[in-house]
Design a protein that fits this description.
27 strands, 18 helices, eight-stranded mixed beta sheet, ten-stranded mixed beta sheet, alpha/beta
Length: 685
């Protein structure tokens, strides 16, 4: 009997549930206090993107009339978002800030400041703040101003009449982005404590001074979040880079989706703002504290209290496999493939490999994808230097990497200026694959060396994202990489690689076929196993293939950091599927796919990949997955990338069938990340 399709969990609520897991880190007594505050900031940043992209898309889907997203769906997600934000501010006000005050770290409101501190704040306001403020009184000649996405403002209701005797009661004050949001008071007026004032508190204390002859009767901070998806019709434009650069100027003024005000904001003012932004009441978020907790990262950075932070962790250099000072290309040629596990192992060997290629006169060509490399990038600088030295440089720059568009446009222009060949991939498909390929002349023939990664070419994020990098001189694998670069540059028809899987061409199909093999093995009573470590699971066809394999008797473990739409543990449907999420010190980012569908080694496969199991990754992006065929490296991936996470009882959460999560244990038990930190430092010693 065929069971009906499993009802999928809601994607947006799954994203919010992930953020609940992150927020729970702020409540853990075993997490250093400033790091607990940092988790609160991370949730705020995540929620900003959620509203800018996911919730905005949901609103669009509701409006299109297709019926796929209903008003009730939107209401349910909005309610969950309100609850999460209320919980976030509750933890901030009732747990984290009181604990910081106990450690003599405090944020002082105007009422808390003594006379000396108020005098210092007044001087700071006059010197640093007032010259940059331009209050706008609203009238027909001064309409409601353009309010950029996530920019902070004050709205004020004034008494009396303006200079012309008119009853203009409402004024708007923009808070300049260039000003620090958290200001540390001098030690000599802080009474032995570390005291801070928020910029909004400074302005609020002197708001009346901005309106001579009138009084501020009521006021509130406010911030609006806008739809920030940058959309261009790639079929209708001649130059994607120019179109995107033009679009960047208007992105900040997309359709409003959320309005934040402080919880003391008078209803009259909140109603006025909702009308200005054409928003319903449900889009109003009254918060009990600073509007935009993200900027409290500035407090963390300015606080002198190392014991309240995670102990510094320096990634180890893989000395045994890559002796310092030795040629990485020589090592790959003589000893075979090398696996790097970040951030436990350093990203520096990847940089050294590229630097070696730049400086080697026998290296003729370098090809690399650029997705999120950052506004400052040693790797992009090295590509520029390679082009200056006359090497053939091909950079596949993804201009539509969300919120990194401007940085990538700038890199594309700098690379083109020195003669590098820059392409932007394939129309309609983001290039999310992480590939670097080096071609060297050796003894009258050409030899290729490659690097593939589950994460970005960004040395900064490689220090706190878990990812796997793969260095290789394997002729078949590097030939496949060259084929991918040629297809991205020439737009030639797809030719199946020997070892690589490539989305959107054969990755999705191969995963479905492999799961079908696992299902068939389970039905025969043979060993059948699936273990996936991914960031998101939302593709309906892959979910159904997992469900089918599980119903046939396969044992399935899914380690899904973020959104998961597969409901585990449904009686008779997903009993054999367990879903867990690990939230710790580092952001889990690596993608590992393990399958077994029989008794022999030939009936087992393990892939590393740049792709999550989402429809967009499988069908609308350029992604790669590559098999780990070396038995020692395969076992290492299993031992480091899968087994510790399946046995984590400290940072792991179990997903329930209703989409909520339950911590596996809590403060006690084993942490996969901490175990790996100890392992790699022990190896280094």
């Amino acid at each position: 009997m065929t069971l009906p399709a499993v009802p999928l969990l809601n994607r947006e609520q799954a994203i919010l549930e992930f953020n609940r897991r992150v927020l729970a880190q702020a409540q853990r007594s075993d997490v250093p206090l400033l790091e607990r505050l940092r988790y609160i900031c991370i949730v705020s940043s995540n929620l900003d993107e959620f509203f800018e992209v996911r919730f905005a898309d949901m609103l669009d889907a509701q409006r299109d009339g297709s019926g796929l997203v209903t008003a009730r769906d939107v209401e349910r997600v909005a309610r969950a978002a309100h609850e999460l934000i209320d919980q976030q501010y509750g933890i901030f006000n009732d747990q984290v800030m009181p604990a910081l005050r106990e450690r003599d770290i405090q944020i002082l409101n105007h009422a808390d400041r003594n006379d000396e501190q108020r005098a210092w704040v007044a001087r700071f306001f006059e010197r640093e703040v007032r010259p940059l403020l331009v209050p706008v009184g609203l009238d027909p000649a001064h309409p409601f101003p353009q309010v950029a996405n996530k920019s902070l403002h004050f709205v004020a209701r004034l008494s009396g009449k303006d200079a012309l005797g008119r009853d203009t009661r409402i004024a708007i004050v923009k808070v300049p982005r260039v000003l620090p949001r958290v200001i540390k008071l001098p030690a000599q007026i802080s009474g032995g404590k570390q005291s801070f004032v928020l910029l909004t508190s400074v302005i609020r204390a002197h708001l009346d001074e901005l309106f001579p002859g009138r009084q501020v009767e009521a006021f509130s901070q406010f911030r609006v979040t806008r739809d920030s998806d940058l959309e261009v019709d790639e079929e209708e434009i001649a130059n994607l880079r120019h179109a995107l650069r033009s679009g960047l100027t208007t992105r900040h003024f997309g359709r409003a989706v959320r309005l934040e005000v402080v919880n003391t904001c008078p209803e009259e003012l909140s109603r006025f703002l909702l009308e200005q932004f054409v928003l319903p009441e449900a889009a109003l978020y009254r918060v009990n504290g600073p509007v935009n907790l993200v900027r409290l990262n500035e407090l963390i950075d300015q606080t002198d209290a190392e014991t309240l932070r995670f102990q510094p962790y320096e990634p180890s250099w893989p000395t045994r496999r890559l002796p310092r000072g030795k040629s990485i290309l020589d090592k790959l040629r003589s000893k075979g493939d090398i696996l790097l596990h970040h951030p436990f192992e350093s990203f520096d060997p990847v940089v050294q490999m590229l630097r070696e290629a730049v400086e080697d006169p026998d290296v003729l060509a370098i090809k690399q994808t650029i997705y999120r490399t950052g506004s400052q990038s040693v790797l992009a600088d090295l590509l520029i230097e390679a082009a200056r030295r006359g090497k053939e440089v091909l950079a596949v720059v993804e201009l539509k990497a969300r919120f990194d568009e401007e940085a990538n446009i700038n890199w594309a222009e700098r690379l083109e200026a020195v003669g590098a060949q820059v392409v932007y991939g394939i129309v309609g498909l983001k290039t999310h694959a992480k590939l670097m390929l080096i071609t060297r002349r050796e003894g009258g023939r050409l030899r290729r060396y490659g690097h593939l990664s589950t994460g970005n070419y960004n040395p900064k994020t490689a220090r706190f994202y878990t990812d796997l990098g793969y260095l290789t001189a394997d002729a078949d694998l590097t030939a496949d990489m060259d084929l991918v670069f040629r297809q991205l540059a020439s737009l030639s028809k797809f030719k199946a690689p020997r070892k690589l899987l490539l989305a959107p061409f054969n990755l999705h199909r191969t995963m479905c076929e492999t799961l079908a093999q696992v299902e068939a093995a389970a039905r025969r009573g043979e060993p059948a196993r699936v273990v996936l470590k991914i960031n998101a699971l939302t593709d309906a066809e892959l979910i159904q293939a997992l469900v089918n394999a599980g119903q046939a008797g396969a044992r399935i473990d899914l380690i899904v950091r973020g959104a998961c739409m597969l409901p585990p543990g449904l009686p008779g449907q997903t009993d054999n599927i367990l879903v867990r999420s690990v939230v710790g010190r580092f952001l889990e980012h690596s993608r590992i796919f393990y399958f077994r569908w029989g008794k022999t080694e030939a009936e087992e496969s393990l892939y590393l990949s740049s792709a999550d199991w989402m429809s967009r990754n499988m069908l609308r992006r350029i992604e790669v997955a590559w098999p780990v065929l070396d038995p020692k490296l395969r076992q290492r991936v299993i031992d480091e990338g899968l087994v510790p996470y399946l046995h984590d009882t400290r940072d792991a959460w179990q997903l329930r069938s209703d989409g909520t999560s339950q911590r596996v244990n809590g403060n006690g038990g084993t942490s996969a990340q901490q175990a790996l930190m100890r392992l790699f430092h022990a190896d280094e010693e």
